[in-house]
From TrEMBL:
Keywords annotated in UniProt: Signal
GO cellular component, one term: nucleus
Name assigned to this protein: USP domain-containing protein
Family annotation (CDD domains): Peptidase_C19
Gene3D superfamilies: Cysteine proteinases (3.90.70.10)
Organism: Gouania willdenowi (Blunt-snouted clingfish)
Pfam family of the protein (one): UCH
Signal sequence range: 1-16
Gene Ontology biological process: protein deubiquitination
Domain USP: 35-341
């Protein structure tokens, strides 16, 4: 009887879901129960990463906005699958399993090293998936051009940023610069240090050993942002190789809700740029091979003024708060997603 009641409750919700605006607060309790994703066998790394991506409103909006370009194209599977996972959050467990199985089968067609039931690395999975979406950019630009519209790749629009590395010889002043494009910022864990300090330390000018043509071996090296992303994803280096052995670094890194990048580290910015934390993927456990991935993310189904946070652990979803996330995830946070406040790029991405 209880099973029947639970089934009816879920079915009623699915039927309601076609006509309900999920931003409404009346459905919060039901929503929290239904937002989980089942584990297909060690797929918590996929579930936690997808939950984090689904909290990124700008990214999801961009994908929908460009739908006219990608919807009938073979290369659109990545976009379709993500939206299918988003929709299946309101469906029955079996339907969720089917959507997730399709997602993984399609992913492993391109990345066969993920064709197993092992727990894999969440940042590596995310990077590969995002790069694959970006690879179809040229095809979509041609389609958009035939439709007399512009295509702006959602991966570029949200995650892409350029960093400049400048090296200057400390004797002759000879200077060289390299510009590199990234979609994730990798940050070494410095235990008992704040994330802000870790990031700014990495950007601050330092002296490095480098042989110049003039014969001098010391140069100054500095990094700065040539462009900033709408979503800044920071990956903390939790998995390291020491003496040829993979080890987990559980050093505590303090982070807060706001991440501020001073203007002096950004070309093209007059003021410091502020980001708000919107989700965190954490790896719980001390082993590099085992453990569990979870995601904490802002509850985007609520109104702006009353936003709570949710902890997603596969099928289990419960309410939490930003204060608890900041307190509890210092030693396990692996990927941190920050959304830029007052982003100028949002206007740019409305090109379709
Ligand atoms: Zn020199």
């Amino acid at each position: 009887m209880m099973i029947l009641l639970m089934f009816w409750r879920r079915l009623s919700f699915c039927l309601l879901s076609n006509s309900v605006d999920f931003r409404g607060t009346d459905y919060n309790i039901v929503l929290t129960e239904n937002l989980g994703l089942p584990n297909l066998t060690n797929t918590c790394y996929i579930n936690a990463t997808l939950q984090a991506l689904l909290t990124l409103k700008g990214f999801i909006d961009d994908i929908y906005r460009q739908k006219v370009v990608w919807e009938n194209h073979f290369y659109s599977v990545g976009f379709k699958e993500l939206l299918s996972i988003r929709h299946c959050q309101f469906q029955l467990d079996n339907e969720k399993r089917c959507s997730l199985r399709r997602f993984k089968d399609n992913f492993v067609m391109s990345f066969q090293d993920f064709d197993n039931d092992d727990q894999m690395d969440a940042p590596e999975f995310m990077l590969k998936w995002l790069y694959r979406l970006r690879e179809s950019k040229d095809d979509f630009e041609i389609i958009a051009s035939n439709l007399s519209i512009c295509y702006l790749c959602p991966v570029d629009a949200q995650f892409s940023f350029d960093m400049v590395q400048t090296i200057t010889c400390l004797r002759c002043g000879s200077k060289s610069s390299i510009v590199e494009n990234f979609i994730i910022m990798t940050q070494t864990v410095k235990a008992n240090t704040s994330l802000d300090k870790c990031l700014l330390d990495g950007l601050t000018e330092e002296t490095v050993q480098r042989l110049c043509d003039c014969g001098f071996e010391e140069s100054s090296q500095k990094h700065f942002f040539q462009s900033l992303p709408n979503v800044l994803v920071v990956q903390l280096t939790r998995f390291l190789f020491r003496n040829d052995k993979a080890v987990k670094d559980s050093g505590a890194v303090d982070f807060s809700q706001i991440l501020e990048i001073p203007a002096k580290f950004c070309v093209n910015e007059r003021k410091s740029v502020k980001y708000s934390l919107v989700s965190v993927v954490s790896h719980v456990g001390t082993s590099t091979k085992y453990g569990h991935y979870i995601c904490d993310g802002v509850n985007s189904k609520q109104s702006q003024s009353s936003k709570s946070w949710l902890t997603y652990s596969d099928n289990n979803v419960k309410e939490t708060s930003i204060q608890d996330v900041i307190k509890d995830r210092k030693s396990s946070a692996y990927l941190l997603f920050f959304e830029r406040q007052n982003s100028p790029l949002i206007l740019k991405s409305k090109s379709v």
